[in-house]
Write the structure tokens for this entry.
Amino acid sequence: MVFGLFKNKEAAELAKPISEILILGSKILKSLPKNKLNRADIMYAFSNKKLFGGPYWQVANDVDLYIKSPHRSVSIYVQPELSGDLEIKSDFSKFKFGALGIADYKGFSAGMDYDETDLKVRLIDLSWISKKSSDKYTSKAKTLYNEISRNKEFKKIEID
């Protein structure tokens, strides 16, 4: 991939570490046997590969696993399927793994579900539903989307 050819240099430079994290993370998750798709074993497998320096996990709640992201406006997570009414049970064998842009990167999304073989990168424009121009994806999100979609590991999906 060629990073940095677009106007928004920050977003272009962010594409490389985010795509590397998603590619390596998806390979780790796909390689784990079904009986090892639980919170503890996923944390161990990710930590063992040393994807990041410093503190590895950002824990926002007791259910999802949040991986320390290279940018505060892009959240990277492993999310289990949830079930139950009074007692919530999480099932990491039916995970969602991805990155989601907020604030400056609103509209950007990338990742995969447990039953998918390919990573997908998405650019989402919700302004046609909400009728609010503030729900349109940002220029940084579009740059990040364009840069990551150049990688053959990602399937490009545009939703607008």
